[in-house]
Amino acid sequence: MIEILRQHIIDRLGNDVENIDDVLERCKQVKVKRNDIILREGETCSAVYFVAKGCLQVFVYNHDSAEITRDIVTENNWCSELVSFSSQQPATENIRAIEPSVLFSIDRVSFQALVESVPQFDKVYKQILEFSYVNSVYRINSFLSMNALERIKWLMEYRPNLMTRLSSKLIASYLGISPETFSRLKSKL
Amino acid sequence: MIEILRQHIIDRLGNDVENIDDVLERCKQVKVKRNDIILREGETCSAVYFVAKGCLQVFVYNHDSAEITRDIVTENNWCSELVSFSSQQPATENIRAIEPSVLFSIDRVSFQALVESVPQFDKVYKQILEFSYVNSVYRINSFLSMNALERIKWLMEYRPNLMTRLSSKLIASYLGISPETFSRLKSKL
DNA sequence: CCTGTGCATTGACAAATGTCAAGACTTTCC
DNA sequence: GGAAAGTCTTGACATTTGTCAATGCACAGG
Predict the structure, then answer these.
(1) Strand stretches in B54-124, DSSP E
(2) In a domain, A163, yes or no
(3) Domain that holds residue B54
(4) I want to staple A105 with a disulfide (CB 3.0 to 4.6 A). Which of A47, A54, A121, B3 is the partner?
């Protein structure tokens, strides 16, 4: 399973990868069941996670205790609560496995050590940051410029696997609409 | 004016700053008038900008040619179209000065050189990326969990200066609501 | 100083989306 | 296997937000 992570790093850096084993040694494999909570708001986020298999939901609760899904992270992507991870303040978001998943976690101490000592890893980290940022920019633009139906179409185009893989309720919460509206609009496609 | 940028970098790195002059030498001062376009969609973004004075709007046009404001960048912050800047593909966003402004621009070649050769600069870059990402996470959560009135209150709390500094039309476009709705909700505060 | 252009506000109405409730259907778990 | 819980869909209705139009106002530019 760790080979998936190795390949991920190689994919991002090409073939000139030294010290990759230093990175992999620091990664702890974690298996989680469906609905397991990986991070609870209020706790301090002490690791970043690579999703080798499965799917994570990053979410908060609104004032009615309904879940607001800020992000869905699938295989071959990294997941964390960066605000809490880098500042070591209590997290404001929750992370949950929505499928049985296999993760590789790197704790904060190892992470800092790798950033300092393995330039390759630092590069990967920057790529991940840029990727996350770019994704969130798209997401912001989708909220600013699209109505609910357009956002559904957008999801179908850019993250089609989510449409088949997730429950309607979850998709609706990711799109920022009610399950009822989602159900109604789907039938208008 | 360049002292503002010097101070910005020192603020982010503490006192152990070497090579800072290598960075500052690469920065070209640019003065722009109100409404000057700094980047037009379709062009390739060739620089990052530090806003020493003034205010920039990052925006796109929706299908009705109305402006959608993805971000507002004020003094002491960095602005760019990162997607285009790092991939050298045509930009999908526009950048405009909404006040007379003073910028320091670092072109792509210089930027790459600094990232490679000045570890300090690389650190600043990562901090900026993290900051931008965190901000966009908050913004996404605001769209997911708040209605128009709540977003207005949120803006008043977290970016109060924008409320006094920008036109109502611009604020509305930043919040993702129509100017009419903004006008009506303001009176309900 | 005048004029035109764009901005802010308000009203009337339309469209989009949310809420609540009910029923059919699945899935989970003992 | 069967009860219990959760999901999906649909209807009726409420609320939020958008659109269009009109007016008053401020401000830039000749």
Answers:
(1) 55-61, 67-74, 77-79, 94-97, 101-107
(2) no
(3) 2-114
(4) A47
Residue of A nearest to B144 (CA): A176
DSSP, residue by residue, A102-117: EEEEEEHHHHHHHHHH
- B61-106 pLDDT per residue, tens: 988 888 999 999 999 999 999 999 999 999 999 999 999 999 999 9
Residue B120 CA distance to nucleotide C10 C1' (Å): 55
Residue B123 — pLDDT band, cuts 50, 70, 90?
confident
DSSP for B114-169?
A: HHHH-HHHHHHHHHHHHHHHHHHHHHHHHHHH--HHHHHHHHHHHSHHHHHHS-HH
CATH of the domain at A108: 2.60.120.10
Note whether residue B109 is domain-resident.
yes
Compute chain B's Rg from CA coordinates.
17
Six-digit token string for B6 = 């010097």
